[in-house]
Each structure stands twice: as structure tokens, then as C-alpha cells.
Amino acid sequence: MLRxxxxxxxxxxxxxxxxxxxxxxxxxxSDINLSLKKGSFHFLTGKSGAGKTSLLSLMYLAQRPxxxxxxxxxxxxxFANRDALAVLRRRIGVVFQDFRLIEHLSAFDNVALPLRVCxxxxxxxxxxxxxxxxxxxxxxHMFEKTSTLSGGEKQRIAIAxxxxxxxxxxxxxxxxxxxxxxxxxxxxKLFIELNKLxxxxxxxxxxxxxxxxxxxxRLHLINGGLRVFQPFEGIVxxxxx
Length: 241
Hints:
The protein contains 8 helices and 10 strands.
């Protein structure tokens, strides 16, 4: 019954009674019920160790739940094989907190990688990558190896790579954590524009300023559970700390 309900659901991500633990340890997350609709935009908050990264890893299919049911794009991940998961992952853009760039490649080649995997023509790749790197103010560093760039510059490359193929879902773990306020606002504008095109966006953040400046609902993890706050509801100093 649960399996059928997930397959029929319109949500791009749906969790029913999801729990996750590592090895034989205690559950990090327990009884998570969540439905992310297509085109929605949410922040994800919680203290360090609350399980934000674990929740994101379930959504980008790096692991399966220890219990409960997880549906992504209408498919129950609990029963999906490796090939099916690979197809689903191509529709998900991820900004990792540790960037995960290929250090010996240039900024251009890192951002171009998802498009090359999809078989896009080099002419179209060149156009898209140059346009996006210009938007995040990295056009002057386009052909420099990422190993030579600063943390904030690497952050912007990671974001550009995650959004270059206009994913159906964008999951971002502290995407503005290594940039100044002006760049942070520009990146948020990029996420908002992507969202207007139909991408579902979830941003994990510790930034109170981000939450108050941009009025989107907030998913808050506490004591292994999940609470949902509407814009400005429950906003107190240090909510994400």
C-alpha cells in the first residue's frame, strides 16, 4: 500500500516514516515525513549534527533509508536498482559543502562535465558555461585549474556545475558559506531564477540573514525529527546554529 502511494504521488521527493542510522549506531533521523512538491523552495536548518547532511544524502540517492519509504520522481528508491538510481541522479543537482571538484581540471571543464556526460555539443557547452561563469563572476578564471583558486571561488564553481544542466531538483549544502554578502545575494538570485523555471530547491544553511532576507518555508531538524515553518515563523537568532 505504501509503495503504491509513493509511485502515485505528485511530489518530487516524498518520505514516509523514514529513519536513518549508520552501522549499528542510534538513528540520526527518525520517522521523517516529508513531501517536496515540484517547483517548491525551502531552507533546511538545524544545529550541527542534527542530520542535515544525512537528509540531503538520502535525497541525492547516496544512501537508502534504514527504514520507511523514500520516493524520488515517483519511484520508490527502496526497490530501485543501480541503473535506475543512476538515471534519477542525472536529474538532481548537488552543491556539496566540500565542493568535490576535480582539482586538476579548469573551472570551465569542471562546470562543463555534466553537459559532456549528457552528450551535448561542444558549441552549446561553450556558450552555456561561459555565460554561467560570467554570472558568478569567474569568467576571468575560466581556464585556471581549480587547485589554484580560493575557497569562495571553488564554491561558485561547484554551484555553477550543479545548476548548469538545469536540474529538476537542486540540493545545496551551505552554498553561501564561503562568499561575501554581495556574492551570496547574487547566488540566491541564481537559485531563485532556476526555481522560477520549475526546479525544486532545498538549501541547507546556518545563516539567519539568508532566512530572513528571502521568505521561503523552512524545514528544521531537531532531536531526530522534522518541523516545517512558514516564512518568518519561529525565526529566532541562531536558528541554524
